[in-house]
Amino acid sequence: MTWFLQSIGIEGEVLEHLDQAQLAFQRPVVLWFGVLLLIPVAYLIWRRQQNLDTPSPRFRLILNIARVFVTVVILLILSGPYLRLDMTVQRKPVLAILLDNTQSMQLPIDPTTTTHSQTRFARAQEALADGLETLEELAEDYALRVFEFSDGLQPLAIDDIASAETKPGNSSFIGEAIQQVVDDAAAESIAGVVLISDGQNTGGPSVSEAAHFAAAADAAVFAIPVDSNYSLGDVSIVDVDTSALVTVGDTVRVNVAVESTELDGESITVELKDGERLLDTEQVVLDSTHPQRIELTFEAEKVGASYLDVNIPVLAAEPRELHANNVDTAFVRITDEKLRVLVLDGHPRWDFRFLKNALNRDGGLAGRDDNPPDVIVETEWKRWSEQRQHDALPQTVEELSEYHVIVLGDVSPDLFDSSFRETLIEAVREKGVGLIVAAGPNAMPHRFDPDFRSILPVRMQSGKSGVEAAAYEPFKIELAGDGMLHDGMRLRDDDVQNREAWDELPEFFWCSAVQRPAAGATVLAWNSAVEGRFGKMPLMAWHHAGEGKVIFVGTDATWRWRLNVADRYFYKFWGQSIRFVARADQLGKKSWIAVHPVQVGVGEEAEIELWAFDEEGSPLAERTQRITFVGADTTEPIKLSVDPETPGRYTAKFTPSEAGTHRLLYQPGNGTESAQATIQARLAPDEYRHPHVDRATLELLASTSGGELLELVEFSTLPAKLSGEPHHEQIHREVTIWDNWLILLVLTSVYVTDIGMRRLTGLS
Amino acid sequence: MSCALLLASVVCITTKSVFAQPAAEVDPAVLEEVTASVDRSLAYLAKHQRADGSWDGNNAPNALAMLAFMGRGHIPGRGKYRDVLRKVKQYTLARQNDDGLFVPERNAGSGPMYQQALTTLAVAEMYGVDPDDDLEEALRDAVQLIVNSQSHNGGWRYQPRPGDSDLSVTVMQIVALRAANNAAIAVPEETIEDAVTYVRSCARQNGGFGYQGPSRTPPMSAAGVVSLQLLGHYDDPLLEPTLDYLSNVPVQWGNSGGVNWYYYFHYYAMQANYQAGGVYWDDWHPRVRKMLLREQHDDGSWSVPPGTSEGEGTVGVNRVYYTSMATLILEVYMHYLPAYQR
Question: What is the value of pTM for the model shown?
Fold first, then answer.
């Protein structure tokens, strides 16, 4: 019935209070006049139809009724009937209660007590069940909306709170849950949002962002941590970081960040393994006051892809649920040839200084002569003799193609004359030399000709070098959807941590005047503060230019990413980008498999990338390749499709359905090299990475939004802390009831039936 | 072009060393506290800048203030302090004579070379964020003057000419030359080699450096360590015993333990421990940070501890020198000034 009424336009408050709605007419005079005329009109119809030669009097009566009915309907339409609702309603402020139902909420609240099996979620349910009276009291004064949430909201009836048995989610989107309930209540007043959680936000907007969002909407958040005086004993690997590509003979450094709780003073051993082979160990005395960074090293000996396990043996005090966070994986590709890199910059700007030093430290990179990468700064170059200037730069496509990657900073056309430009363009397009263009206010790329700019993945605004931010309104980098998945943009291996890292990068004040991405280019990051007629301004992008890959970096201040973390993000970006654009010939010897990310949640999608070569080192040309997934209990084939842009590269998506360490095997036979990779599938890895209850985050959320941190036992004090009272509001609503499909259908049906019957019986 | 510094640093950085080890991560809450403190101090400095762009007639406080702004990521022409840096840049360039010397309006009694080194360092760093040809020329001239002023024993002294040497003036020239090298300004190889020789000549074999020869005071020991580190000698056997010695110097607001030149000492000691990394850094920085945060005035400035020697007669009136030095010490967490990065 409700659906039917809605379909004819009766909806909203009129539908809700249909019993109080009144029928009215827009033109009552027409109605009354029409009713008065109806009798003579009906008589005339009857009189006229008396003369018709109909089969029977009953048939004639039907025709009369049809004509009169059509007349009545037209009369009703002309009089404009509508439903009118005039009433006074009580408006209650919205109070949303959000109950965290995720994997981390399944951790035991206090294993030392007799109720040791009670989970955080069960404890929260119990507290709400105890506070049922409070909830009912709240429901009298407020529009109470209760939800449980993980990566989405699920409404709960008050009576179901204590008994809800929904499966816990794999991610906690606290920020998104708050923003959604605040958004949904946008047209109403909000008394507050009650968040019952362990404070672990593992996806979606940050808690800080949500707190500001709530504060702007006057929605105070009352955060209730679900914990006890007991803290779980746990040691967790929270980050593993290493160079993705190294050369045989290099000392490979694997940096590991470890966090612990309640285990201060315990000595642990952090192990680095390649399969069963122990590569390095480091003893650490745990200190819970800060994350501890450990460096493990080994010498790269064998060419190929290695999935290294970083492992901390489980301690007796760690709950079973947290054993999985003692393991992590690092991916390292070992080659027997260094990437040869040429860096050209206009002047020794800070980006150049930091990049030059970082490149020198990178054991996988070299110049044309195996020394550190070749570097030329235009300000110094200008002071050289003509001969030296000439000798410093490669002159032919062949010489330029000795490099795998060329990094162009803010160089001017003086250094970069037209002949060099043509050579460079040819080297990129024809020989596959990788190119990274880092823009600058002096010359790059606005002072260059259209031919050069045509190899960039962006199109520039004409006559403009760059865009300056206002002194107090700096720009902020916004990671694009494609950027999240891009090899160069992985500041952290974990997706959630990676997005957080980009969100937290410092602001900047200048960007290149990009108009739009080039056709077919992929935008990696936006400057969302600047919009033109093509939408947001691309800040970083890449595309294929012929055989080569080109990345454009539209800011001259990647050095700002060093804030508080030194080279960590700065060189992650540059090192990975250089490897991404590098001409692929040095890889063309052995097949290998990469998995992105190497650690994934059960049920989450990972991308598998296979580089397949024959025994001669040439890329395979078949349209598909097969690899085998080997899990604990299952073995299944996975079909990969060739990348049409890159011969030898095959990709597929894969979703592990069971937790554990799984292998991916490529065994093509026919003398072709086999390869294998490892993927760690965990049940909600992010949920258990930081298993403690994050009271600090909850406190920040509460204080920023104008709310308060409450303990579970203080739930009954909530009514006294809420502001906002029910108020009365006069409602006046009108809904037209003639202008809909039903009236049209009835009118046309009757009229068409009438005409049809007349035609069939030979009447005019 | 000579790339002595560059090559030396490359060799040392790529070798696994007991130094430059990864250190414990600093708590984000601590970093927020440091950032807030630095922002307050920069607000103080901006407020006390004179109309001509300087803070004092002595170029040292001016250069240190410039560095303090850049150490937080502020640059000329952009952002909140765009004009502060633009004005001090114009002032600084105007003070340079044809010999490359930044002539101070007021000397501190010891000659201009302290000021010359600090100003050269500030100009070298500013040139990295402001590609102004005038800055490049000023930097080249200033570096040439430093190179020309090196004494025969490899060190530098108060006056811009060869003569005798002391480690206190020498360390400042070394930092300036490192910054110039980073800025692709050629520094002769022999200048570097001679400087290393001189720094080593001031060391005691069981740890510590002296002012003009083997001895041991906290400020000179910190200066000696930083000198060798920035010259690329991260694995020099003199470093470990000296760092061990420094780790026992009391971190107190005053002159205890021989810290007469309080800010001078902590400026170099923080750098020395940062460059060393590992347990040295982990042990040192929290103590210094807590002390400085505790002693900051509400207006963002710092004073000089009682009983120490950096009086107003030496470093200039008002608190610009103290505030700039304290700010630079705290800005080690920000990893911005290229000359001081590992």
Answer: 0.72
